[in-house]
Amino acid sequence: xxxxxxxxxxxxxxxxxxxxxxxxxxxxxxxxxxxxxxxxxxxxxxxxxxxxxxxxxxxxxxxxxxxxxxxxxxxxxxxxxxxxxxxxxxxxxxxxxxxxxxxxxxxxxxxxxxxxxxxxxxxxxxxxxxxxxxxxxxxxxxxxxxxxxxxxxxxxxxxxxxxxxxxxxxxxxxxxxxxxxxxxxxxxxxxxxxxxxxxxxxxxxxxxxxxxxxxxxxxxxxxxxxxxxxxxxxxxxxxxxxxxxxxxxxxxxxxxxxxxxxxxxxxxxxxxxxxxxxxxxxxxxxxxxxxxxxxxxxxxxxxxxxxxxxxxxxxxxxxxxxxxxxxxxxxxxxxxxxxxxxxxxxxxxxxxxxxxxxxxxxxxxxxxxxxxxxxxxxxxxxxxxxxxxxxxxxxxxxxxxxxxxxxxxxxxxxxxxxxxxxxxxxxxxxxxxxxxxxxxxxxxxxxxxxxxxxx
Length: 455
Ligand SMILES: Cc1ncc(COP(=O)(O)O)c(C=O)c1O
Description:
Blueprint: H1 3-16, E1 34-36, E2 39-41, E3 47-50, H2 53-56, H3 65-73, H4 87-99, E4 104-110, H5 113-128, E5 132-136, H6 145-150, E6 166-169, H7 184-202, E7 207-212, H8 228-239, E8 242-246, E9 270-273, E10 285-290, H9 291-296, H10 312-327, H11 330-347, E11 354-360, E12 363-371, E13 376-377, H12 392-403, E14 405-406, E15 409-410, E16 413-416, H13 424-446
Parallel strand pairs: 3-14, 5-6, 5-7, 7-8, 8-9
Antiparallel strand pairs: 1-2, 2-3, 4-10, 9-10, 11-12, 12-13, 12-16, 15-16
Helix pairs in contact: 3-10, 4-10, 7-8, 11-13, 12-13
The structure holds pyridoxal-5'-phosphate.
The site of pyridoxal-5'-phosphate has 15 residues, from helix 5.
């Protein structure tokens, strides 16, 4: 790509493209000029480790040869509306069901994650005849009206006043919990008691579903305490409520298992997915229905649909992407290199600005604070998207990019979620860049020695 082409792209972008979650006048997007594996290069030919797999989807890395090949083969397959059966759609559904927990039976394909969640709400309402939907604070479920209403943080505010019957409950967040629990199990019991009480007060026979991200992702990779998810399952089963796990971010190997729920001894009633199913090479999402939920629709009309449900091109890319997970042992690699990452994260605790580190597989967050003792967050709640006048998180993320470590942050957490093809050596190289950036940030921005005032 030459300079004139790059300038044209930037000019057209500024003039014609609306960018998500931003004041348009301040948007200055990078142009990716080339990419390979875990790396991309920007318009200055600056090489970056893609440490968030774009938006936590590029699990097989940039420009994977097998996926590029799969694109060539789609030309041979006729495009077909959802009412038709196609080889890519049926094969992909089979691959997904076989990789999912044992009780899962069928897939309804959507275009992405948000509409997968919208459909899971509709399916739960149809299958139970109930209308209330529980979801958690500190969750993100997507930007459509339905998924926006499920979302438990400030990205929901624009779709309010929201949908009646959508109820929020707390996510266990032990780092910021003010109570002192003697064990993770004790913490789980506390949060489950509160959830139980909310279920009773909302009327269990009116609640269709409890939605949760098994490990909330963009809200800071909040690992559930021991026994918590199983406890939610037990409460749902007791009251005939469907448990729906949003695995849009955690699914397809991100945590070291195909689905994050497979780390735990329970099975949800539905799983929503997107991103990693095609490694983001083509848009696709969906809902996996358990045998029981799927069977309900044998004799009841499945009263919903989408023009592109099971789109041939996306399904073909999905099949190729899922084959790569197996052929290249990406789940195993995520567990192994995730272990290396976890070690490096532990070492970050020596920094004054690091409050907490959390990870599972190749899914991690570093939570930054202004003060380790008081845990004052580096950025107050609701101050993303340029609202924070100090701009501290933004400065840190920009410094990381400058060092060649590309990622994004939400509130005070920096997300680390590289492609699942990363090697142990590359994890170490990238984390060296992270440490260099953090050291400079502390010395020059956050705690500069010369700001000590002498009275
Ligand atoms: C957990 C979760 N659910 C849903 C979504 C929404 O997915 P999409 O942007 O494909 O609609 C996201 C997006 O990041 C997500 O992280």
